[in-house]
Amino acid sequence: MIGQTISQYKILEKLGEGGMGVVYKAHDTKLDRIVALKFLPHHLTTQEAEQARFLQEARAASALNHPNVCTIYDIKEEGDQQYIVMELVDGTTLKHKLPIQKESDVLAYALQIGDALHEAHSKGIVHRDIKCENIMVNSKNQIKVMDFGLAKLKGTMKLTKTSSTVGTLAYMAPEQIQGAEVDGRSDIFSFGVVLFEMLTGRMPFRGEHEAAMMYSILHEEPESVAKSRPDVSPEIDRIIRRALEKDSEDRYQHIDDMVSELRRIQKKSTRVSRASLADIPAIPTSEQSDSASTAVSSKTQPIQGPSRRGLMIGAGVVVLLVAGAAVYFSLFRQQQSIDSIAILPFTNVGADPNTEYLSDGITESIINSLSQIPNLKVMSRSSVFHYKGKESDPQKAGKELGVKAVLVGRVTQRTDNLLISAELVDVSNNTQMWGEQFNKKLSDVISVQEDISKEISHKLSLKLASEDEKKLVKRPTENTEAYQFYLKGRFYWNKRKADDLWRSVKYYQMAIDADPNYALAQAGLASTYVILPEYTGVPLKEMLPKIEAAAKRATELDPTLAEPFAVRGLMKNSVWDWSGAEEEFKRAIELNPGYPTSYHWYSILLRQQGKFEEALAKIKRGLELDPMSMIINLNYGDVYAAMGRYDQAIDVYKKLIELDPNFPGAHRNLADVYLVQNNPAGAITELKKVREIVGTDKSYGLEYLGYAYGRSGKIEEAEKVLDQLVAFSKGGNAVSFQIAAVYAGMGENDKAFDWLEKGYVEQNSSLAYLKITPFFAGLKSDPRYIAMLKKLGLEK
Predict the structure, then answer these.
(1) What pLDDT digit, counting tens, does each position of 760-781 carry?
(2) 577 in a domain, yes or no?
(3) Is the distance from CB of 584 to CB of 573 less than 8 angstroms?
(4) What's 83's domain CATH number?
(5) 417 φ/ψ angles, rounded to the nearest 5 degrees
(6) What is the pLDDT, as a whole number, of residue 470?
(7) 41-71 residues labelled b (16+ CB within 10 A) or e (exposed)
(8) Which of 365, 401, 480, 508 is the most buried (most CB within 10 A)?
(9) Which pLDDT does position 706 carry in this prediction?
(10) What domain range includes position 458?
(11) What pLDDT, on a 0 to 100 scale, did the predictor assign at position 158?
(12) Is 604 within 8 Å of 618 (Cβ atoms)?
């Protein structure tokens, strides 16, 4: 067609070709201007209905008059072909500029694209094909959005790697793929894809063919932009995540809302630091303002006959002060109501497993610091770590957790350098209350956490007493090396697995070696020692001196710590010192009413004694403080089971399994209820899952399986379990109570009592459950059972 004249347009050269037609450069001979002609694909214009629809939309698009929209001049026909006459943009597509290195350039382009979409949406026009190939950047660095009004038609699914189809599909919103009604929110999704691509040079959703691409868009979450661009503001990442929500109801509902947030980031990044009121120079007198030097004194001067210029400056200052006061009091009123916060797990940028302890530890340290503030509800670690590894929208997470503010952050470590970014989000309106980036040395990690905690306190307008302020900035150690060892110890302690708990002991000890006066490290060591018997089978007798020594040292170094008192409570509970344990738990709660573990362990003590109503009250309080804790929820179900409220217990256990199918405690305790309900087959099914999860080299849950086999008459299988438990016993594990349980299930009561006596001698902590466990229900009429309860202090 080059060289031909069609109507008044002489075709000069071919500019490009794509799925939506062929574009030529042409000379408008009537108006003497250079234009672009876009000849539409034949399939778009052959059907009468499609032709009418196209013409209607093209006419609407031609009415757009905006500097960031490529202008449509005319719509014409040549034979059986239709073509659009449009503005010729001298430049290149946005695709050829990817990735864009400067955040400021990305924002500048994004705002222009957003303005173009706003113009279209305000006229009722949905683009439906926003992608980098349809966005031009002209020679003046100005954005021109192309192809407004062209419909995206459904086609057949081709399992090929054709770039034209997959390239366009990659920008489609889920509802567009599914053939549902599209609106401006569909363009917002595509805009989010464009933003992601501008920053990373890659697509957020990928697939080898159209079917795989569709699946990715419909079902997979995109990775964080920060993974490849840690330098980018966390606010931009949050905006992209919201734009890419699968459900259109969860996205920005209007493009101007998204543009407004982008513009706020741009203003913030270019904002010049303002002088404080104390630094504002005095308003010059007429004499000073007329002087040739026009110097302004920094000292306060008496105002004598102010000039017109002086009055104008004074009025301007007053206006600024009034406006500033209005903004301040508006924000103050808004922030006054914020009395709860969740610190979501800081993202470990780069996903290096060797530095995961650092992102987790910073999160936990900020939680612990803010928990010292009275009247501020701070979600516990286990509740917020439910969101670890997930690309969670802060507003959505905040609503799920029932808090009014959410802190999100990212940690990037490069050798000895740390880049930590943090953003505080108001859940009510999804706006940023505060954000900051810290580029520090690894040795400064403690001070960064202090800064974040103080900023949050300030931004939430929390009025702190002097003692509370001291707690907020109190440094547990000045030794950075010790602090890093402590974080590693805490990291492995939270995993609750035998090998990891031993690693935890090692790192806590290294922290103490680096700083012998580190109270938190001593408390952490005590907390590990006290749970080792349950998870590893190590005899409690071996741990008791170590638990006592670490807990005592922790309280000597810092008498205000609640954790070592709770540890001593659990320790005394394990050796059947019921009154002593209760005193320790009460002291822990007094020191820190917001520490959920104290209520959790106290509830176990009360349940073991048969005080079920009190136990229920305590575990409910623990759940209020830590609603997402798997272990606290497990014990919540256990209280119901002990009370005979089996349906409620089963409901709790099944919900836990739904949350985490590999949580062994839920399967084990569900099996326990099945046994009470005379359903040994159901119990065996659950207990086999437990063994699959924990592995055959661990004794966890083995007694439940042996008991179930015995109850169902499968004596041979029960004896095999006994052989395994005896082998564990010979290996140094304290499993006498467990062996007694299997014998009880087999109906061999004498052997059961023999092993219970051995358990008493070895101080097996599981004996604390003797009064309430269903294992020994068949022994309750035996005088030896009552005698054992009396020895344990569980019966008077």
Answers:
(1) 988 888 999 999 998 998 899 9
(2) no
(3) no
(4) 3.30.200.20
(5) -105, 140
(6) 52
(7) eeebbeeeeeeeebeebbebbbebebebbbb
(8) 508
(9) 93
(10) 340-474
(11) 36
(12) no
Per DSSP bridges, beta strands 135-138 and 91-93 are antiparallel
Residue 237 has a CB neighbour count (10 Å cut-off) of 25
Q: How far, in Å, CA of 424 to CA of 82, rounded? A: 53
Q: Do both 354 and 450 map to the same domain?
A: yes
Q: Strand runs (DSSP E) across 170-298, as ranges?
A: none
What's the confidence (pLDDT) of residue 122?
Answer: 82
Give the DSSP per-residue string, 654-684.
HHHHHH-TT-HHHHHHHHHHHHHTT-HHHHH
Burial class, 618, CB count within 10 angstroms (exposed 0-12 / middle 13-18 / buried 19+): buried
Question: 29 and 175, same structural domain?
Answer: no
Q: Are 111 and 211 in contact (CB under 8 A)?
A: no
Amino acid letter for position 170: A
Amino acid at 366: I
Tokens of 599: 């209520």
Is residue 614 assigned to a domain? no
pLDDT digits (tens, 9 = 90+) for 453-475: 666 666 665 544 455 555 555 56
CB atoms within 10 A of CB 215: 13
3-state secondary structure of 631: helix
Q: How far apart are CA 37 and CA 50, in angstroms?
A: 20
* Tokens (6 digits) for 406: 């959410």
Residue 525 belongs to what H/E stretch?
A: helix 519-536
Token pair of 608, please? 């073991």
Residue 34 and residue 170 share a domain:
no
Tell me the longest C-alpha to C-alpha distance in the chain. Answer: 113
Domain co-membership, 187 together with 146? yes
| Angle of CA points 614, 620, 624, to nearest 5° | 145
- State phi, psi for 138 to the nearest 5 degrees: -80, 180
122 and 51 within one domain = no
At 334 the pLDDT is 43
Give the Cα separation of 777 and 785 in Å (integer). Answer: 10
SS3 string of 534-579? Answer: HHHCCCHHHHHHHHHHHHHHHHHHCCCCCHHHHHHHHHHHHCCCHH
Is 166:213 a contact under the CB 8 Å cutoff? yes
Residues paired with residue 432 on neighbouring β-strands, in sequence order: 425
Q: Judge if the upstream peptide bond of residue 627 is cis by omega within 30 degrees of 0.
A: no
In this structure, the answer to whether residues 52 and 153 fall within a common structural domain is no
User: In this structure, what DSSP letter does residue 273 have?
Assistant: P
Please, are residues 638 and 607 in contact by the beta-carbon 8 Å criterion? yes
**What is the per-residue DSSP string for 458-480?**
HHTT----HHHHHHHH--S-S-H
Backbone angles phi, psi at 737, to 5 degrees: -60, -40
Structure tokens at 258: 């998204």
Those residues whose C-beta lies under 8 Å from the C-beta of residue 274, and which sit 6 or more positions away, are none
Residue 88 and residue 34 in contact, taking contact as beta carbons nearer than 8 Å: yes
In terms of domains, do 244 and 141 share one? yes
What is the edge-to-edge ordering of all strands in the sheet holding 91-93?
91-93, 135-138, 143-145
All residue ranges of the chain with pLDDT < 50 are: 149, 151-167, 272-336, 463-465
Closest CA to 421 of 436, 400, 405: 436
Claim: this prediction has a pTM higher than 0.70: no
Catalytic residue (one of 28, 80, 90, 129): 129
pLDDT at 193: 96
Q: Evaluate whether 638 touches 649 at the Cβ level (below 8 Å).
A: yes
For residues 625 and 609, is the Cβ–Cβ distance under 8 A? no
| Annotation marks residue 638 as catalytic | no
User: Can you tell me the distance from the alpha carbon of 84 to that of 104, in angstroms, rounded to the nearest whole number?
Assistant: 34
From residue 477, alpha-carbon distances to 363, 444, 554 in Å are 17, 12, 13
Which residues are CB-contacts of 480 (< 8 A; sequence separation ≥ 6)?
A: 442, 443, 445, 446
